[in-house]
Design brief:
CATH architecture of the largest domain: Sandwich
Number of helices: 11
CATH class of the largest domain: Mainly Beta
CATH superfamily of the largest domain: Immunoglobulins
Strand content: 25-35%
Distance between the termini: 77 Å
């Protein structure tokens, strides 16, 4: 019976891309992960990624250059639990970084407060002359809690640090300012602690959110890293946006952040001028696809740790009410038709990220 159990576990491990393997012990985490953009990283599940890849010249050659991060297991299953939990180190390159993976079977890395110097190896321990046995660890995998990159956020830098095209232009750059030993980092921001146990074997009150909060999934979890305020002046008023993140407000050049402000006076509401924040790539003087771009044509995106002041030439009166909404479009509305995405309602939606309400005193 024991041999059959071992063979069963080993066969499950061979097909570990099947999330049902992990779901047996980590049901909450797997449910979150199934709704994440990590899980939906392939051209089969990410419409935007597919629309861009369909226009890439290398598609005709069958050379899927995005596979390193979008399908790292050499399959069409996208990112899996193993994709991240088997990373041992990050190799840095000028064009783009590289994940170095663990080669030992059933050996995973993770982070847990209080376990920073521990490695848990599965084993059976007997007592009372072999009459009783107990197990240590999980029969599905050993787990190493000592890898620092799982605590400071560096584990994300293999795919999310930077990406240069063939012209040497940084198409998308997060940078490593979010890699920190103490305080907020990539992991604590995008995988905040939420209610629910990480495993059904050892119950905990909270766990790291494996839906990976971002512009598409649970953007509200990131709203605490943005502040909106206002300031009255003699010739109008200012809306002040503070980006407390260590990277640009929006990283992907397709995104557009937008500030919408309304003024309500005597029961009447007026929509004020809309302000967009973009980073547009192009060739010569025209916008272009990322792989063709040679320069940044326009960059008004709110920078890391920046306090951006937007002025409105509208004098305020006592009792006026101001509502400021900072939100975004997943895809620049000017690009939706070009990418063939006009039938997707969600892609065309304006998504609020942070709201501010003010009453003039």
């Amino acid at each position: 019976m024991r041999l059959l159990l071992i063979l069963s576990i080993f066969s499950i491990w061979l097909f570990a891309n099947d999330l049902n393997t992990c779901k047996g012990c980590h049901p909450i985490i797997v449910n979150e992960f199934e709704n994440s953009m990590h899980k939906k990283s392939t051209i089969k599940e990410d419409k935007i990624h597919k629309a861009i890849w369909d226009k890439h010249p290398l598609k005709k050659k069958g050379d899927y250059t995005c596979a390193k991060c979008h399908t790292p297991n050499g399959s069409h299953s996208g990112i899996t639990c193993l994709s991240c939990h088997t990373i041992t180190n990050i190799k840095k390159h000028s064009k783009e970084n590289e994940n170095i993976y663990e080669k030992r079977d059933k050996y995973l890395y993770s982070a847990q407060k209080g376990m920073e110097d521990k490695k848990v190896v599965y084993k059976e321990e007997s007592s009372w002359l072999g009459l009783f046995t107990k197990t240590v660890g999980s029969p599905y995998h050993d787990i190493d809690y000592t890898n620092k990159i799982f605590y400071n956020g560096e584990v994300c830098m293999g795919c999310h640090s930077h990406k240069k095209n063939s012209h040497g232009l940084n198409v998308c750059k997060t940078g490593n300012k979010g890699v920190r030993e103490n305080g907020d980092n990539c992991i604590t921001c995008h995988m905040p602690k939420v209610e629910g146990s990480a495993t059904n074997i050892r119950i905990s009150k909270k766990h790291a959110f494996h839906g990976f909060a971002g512009v598409i999934n649970k953007p509200e979890l990131l709203s605490k890293y943005i502040d909106i305020d206002y300031k009255n002046s003699n010739n109008g008023f200012d809306i002040i946006i503070q980006n407390k993140a260590p990277h640009n407000l929006m990283l992907q050049p397709l995104r557009v952040a937008q500030l919408r402000v309304t003024l309500t006076r005597d029961g009447k509401t007026e929509n004020l001028k809309v302000h967009n924040f973009v980073r547009i790539l192009g060739t010569k003087s025209k916008p272009s696809m990322p792989w063709l771009a040679t320069k940044v044509l326009k960059d008004t995106m709110i920078n890391p740790n920046e306090e951006r002041v937007i002025h409105f030439n509208k004098e305020l009166k006592k009792g006026d009410k101001i509502e400021a909404i900072l939100g975004f479009y997943i895809v620049n509305p000017k690009m939706i038709k070009k990418l063939g995405l006009e039938s997707d309602k969600k892609i065309k939606e304006f998504i609020p990220l942070k709201r501010g309400y003010f009453v003039v005193q």
